[in-house]
Design goal:
The chain is mainly α and 187 residues long. 83% of the residues lie in helices and 0% in strands. Helix 3 runs antiparallel to helix 4 and helix 5 runs parallel beside helix 7.
Length: 187
C-alpha cells in the first residue's frame, strides 16, 4: 500500500493537486472586494501558473510521470483557467465585450475535454499540441494582466489583458480545430 501511495504522491502530482485545492482561496479574494482581495487572488493564480510549469518539468526531469498525473494535469489546467475566467467576467474585471473570447475559451475546453476522453477511452493516444501549450500560456498571461490591471487601475494594462484574451481565444479555436480534425473528423 505504501509503495502505491509513494508512486502516486510524487512532487508533480502534489503540485497539480495543490492548484485545485487553492481555488477556494482564489475565489475568496474576489469576495473580499478590495485591492487586497484581488491581490490575494492574483497571487494564488500566479502560484497555479508557476506550479503548472513546474509539475511538468519535475515529472519529465525526475521520470515521475504517472497515469494519475497525465489525467489530473490537463484537468487542473482547465479548472484553474475556467474558474479564473468565470470570476474575472463575473466580477467585471474584464469588459462586457471580453466575455466573447472568455466564452469561446470555455466552450473549447469542454469540447476538447470530451474529445480527449473519447480518444483515450478508445485506446488511442491524445498528445498535447505545442499550440495548446501556447494557448494555455497566453490565457494565463491574459488573466494575470487583467487582474493586475484591475488592482492598479490601469486602462492600458486592461486593454493589453483583453487583447491577449482575444488572441488566446483565436489560438483556442485553431488548436481545437486541429484536435477535432485529428481525432474526430479523420475517423
Amino acid at each position: 500500500m505504501n509503495n502505491v501511495l509513494n508512486k502516486l504522491l510524487t512532487l508533480p502530482n502534489i503540485l497539480t493537486i495543490s492548484r485545485m485545492f487553492l481555488l477556494p482561496i482564489f475565489a475568496l479574494g474576489f469576495f473580499i472586494n478590495s485591492r487586497m482581495g484581488l491581490t490575494i487572488s492574483l497571487t494564488v493564480f500566479l502560484f497555479c501558473c508557476i506550479t503548472d510549469y513546474l509539475d511538468g518539468y519535475y515529472a519529465r526531469m525526475y521520470k515521475q510521470t504517472t497515469k494519475l498525473g497525465q489525467m489530473l494535469d490537463p484537468l487542473a489546467d482547465k479548472i484553474v483557467v475556467a474558474i479564473a475566467i468565470l470570476f474575472i467576467a463575473g466580477f467585471q474585471v474584464i469588459s462586457i465585450f471580453a466575455i466573447i473570447p472568455a466564452a469561446i475559451i470555455l466552450c473549447r475546453e469542454i469540447v476538447i475535454s470530451g474529445v480527449r476522453d473519447a480518444t483515450e477511452f478508445s485506446g488511442n493516444s491524445f498528445r498535447t499540441l505545442f499550440l495548446s501549450k501556447c494557448k494555455t500560456a497566453t490565457q494565463m498571461l491574459a488573466i494575470s494582466i487583467s487582474m493586475f490591471a484591475s488592482i492598479i487601475k490601469s486602462h492600458f494594462a486592461s486593454v493589453a489583458g483583453e487583447a491577449l484574451l482575444w488572441l488566446s481565444s483565436l489560438i483556442a479555436i485553431v488548436s481545437g480545430f486541429i484536435y477535432c480534425k485529428r481525432h474526430v473528423f479523420s475517423k
